[in-house]
């Protein structure tokens, strides 16, 4: 008999440290399936495209694996949002913060890819970004900020000329979101409900195909064990997709420990 290996889910955000400081061209999952975020996307879309002409920061707060990056990327690449801004840029900060790398990534996305830019000092990069921001309505996504001091270091670069520019910020830390707040209240991402978890699991395992009644019962149990964390669901779905039979799924359900939720807080 084939022995099913123990399942151990190691949670992390979709963009890891190795991918930090990269631009929107390499980190945006433009066609990624979104489940359970429809009403949230609608609410945050309005904050990005309407309201005050003052520069504002839309902060998305949540634990690791909760879907902050997925949601932020979906907003960043939304057609109605894109059409609102003259230029857009995206970067990931992560725990290993490099101001110079972040500035270069943002400037590259803002079409400032002059080779000479990479030779500038950090202070000159700050000045250049500030000047660029003064002449364009910009949207900048800064993903995965861990410390309020990082935002305080970057914030002076983003000029406010009252033209409706916006910044999307994602973080696990409430104090980071509070530090960055201008007008918009930080948005705290809710956990998935059980039906939303099961819907996402089905989409990731079966696509448009149906799920048999035998698998649905154990599938609901597995979805519940994922503790409402979209990233956990996606990781587990990859395991379930290998063998779509009840015996295998029940072994997976058995091996899924209660550690999923506690690991997500790391």
TrEMBL record:
Keywords: ATP-binding, Leucine-rich repeat, Nucleotide-binding, Plant defense. SUPFAM superfamilies: P-loop containing nucleoside triphosphate hydrolases. Residues 40-209 form the NB-ARC domain. InterPro entries: Apaf_helical, NB-ARC, P-loop_NTPase. The keyword ATP-binding applies. The gene is NBS374-7. It comes from the Eukaryota. This is NBS-coding resistance gene analog. Gene3D superfamilies: Helical domain of apoptotic protease-activating factors, P-loop containing nucleotide triphosphate hydrolases.
